[in-house]
Design brief:
Number of strands: 0
Membrane topology: Multi-pass membrane protein
Keywords: Endoplasmic reticulum, Golgi apparatus, Membrane, Protein transport, Transmembrane, Transmembrane helix, Transport
Largest sheet: none
Order of helices and strands: HHHHHHHHHHH
Radius of gyration: 19 Å
Shape: globular
InterPro entries: Surf1/Surf4, Surf4
Protein name: Surfeit locus protein 4
Main location: endoplasmic reticulum
Length: 255
């Protein structure tokens, strides 16, 4: 693919930056909106000033530290596990568990982290380049499979169930591309198409920069925008690294 040849050196870096963008934005927001976040947690859970402050501090420190480690390529696996913990903590604290749309988006974000974790395992093994090894390890293969399947959940939240021509076409094309990524068939092309589609939807529907900062909708759209950018980062990792061993693309090589 021409696109991959041109962007081979830069694509993984862009993918990682996109992937951690929502954690970076949320960590900064915790700093800038410390009192509002603390008061929200205290009011929702009646946990007291100290526990609510500890929650905000843990989110701030965990997310910013994880982002720095991922971008600097140091202790990436530990950073991923820490960010997984942040997702789980926020899912419970903000009652996302009971909101299907937000839950599916958080799971898609987890899928991106799984792909990042798989990439970090690849880099670790490349230290022994030239040394005969067994076939690609199962854990990495299944992390890539799990990451692809979870990323697809983001697109399920974008389906529109109405009878308009545009919605029907969008649902059919989107569903077909989702299936291709999930099963790993023509994976890089399907993932790249989804990147373009999702980016266009994101810029159009989540244009938080057009809303005044003092309005609640600004923060809501900003959160959605960067979370979507993280899923785009996960898809770019699929484009850069391929679908992994558990995929139809890989099986075709054996036929």
């Amino acid at each position: 693919m021409w696109f991959l040849r041109v962007t081979k050196q830069y694509l993984p870096h862009v993918a990682r930056l996109c992937l951690i963008s929502t954690f970076l934005e949320d960590g900064i927001r915790m700093w800038l909106q410390w009192s509002e976040q603390r008061d929200y947690i205290d009011t929702t859970w009646s946990c007291g000033y100290l526990l609510a402050s500890s929650f905000v501090f843990l989110n701030l420190l965990g997310q910013l530290t994880g982002c720095i480690l991922v971008l600097s390529r140091n202790f990436v696996q530990y950073a991923c596990f820490g960010l997984f913990g942040i997702i789980a903590l926020q899912t419970i604290a903000y009652s996302i568990l009971w909101d299907l749309k937000f839950l599916m988006r958080n799971l898609a974000l987890g899928g991106g982290l799984l792909l990042l974790l798989a990439e970090s395992r690849s880099e670790g093994k490349s230290m022994f380049a030239g040394v005969p090894t067994m076939r690609e390890s199962s854990p990495k293969q299944y992390m890539q499979l799990g990451g692809r399947v979870l990323l697809v959940l983001m697109f399920m939240t974008l389906l529109h169930f109405d009878a308009s021509f545009f919605s029907v076409v969008q649902n059919i094309v989107g569903t077909a591309l989702m299936i291709l990524v999930a099963i790993g068939f023509k994976t890089k092309l399907a993932a790249l198409t989804l990147v373009v589609w999702l980016f266009a939807i994101n810029v159009y529907f989540n244009a938080f920069w057009t809303i005044p900062v003092y309005k609640p909708m600004h923060d809501f759209l900003k959160y959605d925008f960067f979370q979507t950018m993280s899923v785009i980062g996960g898809l770019l990792l699929v484009v850069a690294l391929g679908p992994g061993g558990v995929s139809m693309d890989e099986k075709k090589k054996e036929w």
